[in-house]
Amino acid sequence: MITLRKPRIVILGAGYGGLMATTRLQKMIGVNEADIVLVNKHDYHYETTWLHEASAGTMHHDRVRYDIRDVIDRSKVNFIQDSVVEIKTEEKVVVLENSQIDFDYLVVALGGEPETFGIKGLKEFAFSIVNVNAARQIREHIEYQFANYNNEEEKRDERLTIVVGGAGFTGIEFLGELTNRIPELCHEYDLDFHKVRLVCVEAAPMVLPGFDPELVNYAVSQLERKGVEFMLGTAIKECTPEGILVAKGEEEVKEIKAGTVVWAAGVRGNSVIEKSGIEAMRGRVKVQPDLRAPGHDNIFIIGDSSLVINEEINRPYPPTAQIAMQQGEVCARNITAIIRNKTELESFKPDIKGTVCSLGEDDAIGVVYGKKVFGAKASFMKKMVDNRALLMIGGPSLVLKKGKFNIL
Amino acid sequence: MITLRKPRIVILGAGYGGLMATTRLQKMIGVNEADIVLVNKHDYHYETTWLHEASAGTMHHDRVRYDIRDVIDRSKVNFIQDSVVEIKTEEKVVVLENSQIDFDYLVVALGGEPETFGIKGLKEFAFSIVNVNAARQIREHIEYQFANYNNEEEKRDERLTIVVGGAGFTGIEFLGELTNRIPELCHEYDLDFHKVRLVCVEAAPMVLPGFDPELVNYAVSQLERKGVEFMLGTAIKECTPEGILVAKGEEEVKEIKAGTVVWAAGVRGNSVIEKSGIEAMRGRVKVQPDLRAPGHDNIFIIGDSSLVINEEINRPYPPTAQIAMQQGEVCARNITAIIRNKTELESFKPDIKGTVCSLGEDDAIGVVYGKKVFGAKASFMKKMVDNRALLMIGGPSLVLKKGKFNIL
């Protein structure tokens, strides 16, 4: 009797892309066809697109995450909780912090990292909304600033100033949540609402680049009405323990004192990619149409570390959950095809159903199936988008457990 | 027609003593007999004896306070929200931060202050459980330490160390609450419970001096079982931003690294007393039997800034809410008597009904009407003691609103 060694598929990362690939593979692949191994740093998946809520403190972080073992089929998928150190592409080995693992097929879905563009002090003194640990740290940091205010002989108003670097998707959504959270914090600590400053600093001359101007105007006026100050065309030159230094064009450098600085202006690919010698630009790999890394026929790269060009405008698609999940599905089908010795692989083509940007409770802007929406309707659509991600990965039971039903 | 000027009674402080004096005076004194003015820094009264719960985070600080205007009769009492700077005893004037006020009769019920005995760094780097602002700051400081832990490349276990200086009433009750709070915090921030240290440092050789030894043993073993480390006969030599330096007897000085240090070892009288030239020892005035300050026939001093000797053991009574409230009642009766031109004033004699020290949820030790109690029964008695204070100051409606009913 000859025992044929089954091929081993290893998926790195249980974010939107990795978890989607895993749940699709466990359905498509028979137990005798291949071994499936999922590696993730934590034993939970978190909704990256909800982290701004946990960071502002408007949603508890436990609502933002769920146990990975609740959505994987443990008879088919072997889950390893560990951090990835390096991929040895030639040896087909992934080095983890506590062990290493061989692979035949690899799905790299490790997610992005904040890009600080070499701005001095950002890494040391600014927060980034990157994971559950960071989100609850930001929430507690802001709350601690507010809790300290009334205890000091000399009141330091900058404790109540929050600077958000970047007016992209994350920055705007975080500001929207903060406008809901600040009145609660003022009530909690007996503080004057008018002493709080929410400042958004953006180097580009506009908010939410690429979005429809009418919707952008709506977003800006809604947030300004709730107290957000926008400083557009203004670059952060440095971050210090006291706040930030900014400059508008050629104007003189100015200091904004702030107890909290959150950097939400840039995402790059994962540094493991570069450490492993895979060709990339800022950690993002320009993948082949079938999602494989050029020169690596057994390595698929999906999610924030992959780069796919939008031919219509000849620019890369932004890294989003929507694209990561669609890539997860295509990648699962392609791996199944390879294992079954099919020669033709599917090409990935994003199907952008819509983009909705939240502006806090019951307000949002967006384009859904080509139609502009804003206000309560957009907010409803946003919640449906969030629920859809749960449905696709974990089915109806996960939607019931973790879904957003606080709809009008 | 001659308008006689009504005498003015001014009460400084709306703690247990001041608020009891006010509510009794407003019942006893007719509108035509005298004007009553109450001065307090905040527009709320807080339960000083519950602050350890708000500080640990086991009870929200809003449950620990109530609006002063809910318990005073505004047709009879004029409430001024301001801070007391100085009492000019000769001129019969109280200088406030924003104004000044004349008085004919004064009740000084300003409460105590932490006594740091000149230990270096305690004022700067240790917290004290002194008021609502401080309590929520301590709660948030501890939570912030726990929230930061997992975000640091190199884990600093001292972030999870809490040092309590002093094994008196406040220190022990605070430790009891912390033993309930720590498991919640570990769950909230995904931390290993065994990395947390609760250290109680006490210069005296025993816990809860003056308490029955059998009850003390029970308290120590219960707290030790829940993870508290006691360092008795050990003096805090210095507090630093990193923790504390301690020495046991003649032994070498040792460092305990700690993210949080709470000083709960000493109470002194109010510094306004000394600033006003009233004779005092550590801010406490050895009052006459009728509660008047020696040499000041129109100034009554009650609560933590008064000093009454327990003749049985020839030592001062400890500053407690029970004594402050009883003093408030006697002082109100004596002022009424003076205004009505009675010559005989009542002498204050504490009636110690009992003392119960909480050890966290559903556990306590105490002596009530001369009987030792511990465990759930003592915990029940403690809640009844707390409810009694509400009843005496604000009547049944305040008990219903703010009372403790989480009884077995």
Helix content of chain A: 25-40%
CATH architecture of the largest domain in chain A: 3-Layer(bba) Sandwich
Greatest interface and its participating residue counts: A-B, 16 and 16 residues
CATH homologous superfamily of the largest domain in chain A - what is it?
Answer: FAD/NAD(P)-binding domain
Percentage of residues in DSSP E strands of chain A:
25-35%
What is the C-alpha radius of gyration of chain A, as a whole number of Å?
A: 22 Å
- The residue ranges of chain A in which pLDDT falls below 50 over 5 or more consecutive positions are none
Strand order in the largest sheet of chain A = 5-2-1-9-21-20
Keywords (chains A, B): FAD, Flavoprotein, Oxidoreductase
EC number (chains A, B): 1.6.99.-
GO molecular function (chains A, B): NAD(P)H dehydrogenase (quinone) activity
Domain FAD/NAD(P)-binding (chains A, B): 8-328
Summed up, what is this model?
Chains A, B: Its cofactor is FAD. Chains A, B: Keywords: FAD, Flavoprotein, Oxidoreductase. The structure is a homodimer of 408-residue chains. Helices cover 31% and strands 26% of the residues of chain A.
Q: How would you sum up this structure, described in words?
A:
The structure is a homodimer of 408-residue chains. The first copy, chain A, is built from 9 helices and 27 strands. Chain A has 408 residues and is α/β, with parallel strands linked by helices. Chain A has 2 domains: 8-41 and 82-114 and 268-343, FAD/NAD(P)-binding domain (3-Layer(bba) Sandwich), CATH 3.50.50.60; 122-265, FAD/NAD(P)-binding domain (3-Layer(bba) Sandwich). In chain A, the strands form 9 sheets. Chain A has a 6-stranded mixed β-sheet with strand order 5-2-1-9-21-20, with helices on one face. A 4-stranded parallel β-sheet of chain A has the order 13-12-11-17. A 3-stranded antiparallel β-sheet of chain A has the order 6-7-8. In chain A, a hairpin with a 2-residue loop joins strand 26 and strand 27. Chain A starts with 7 loop residues before the first strand and ends in a 6-residue tail after the last helix. At the A-B interface, helix 4 of A face helix 4 of B.
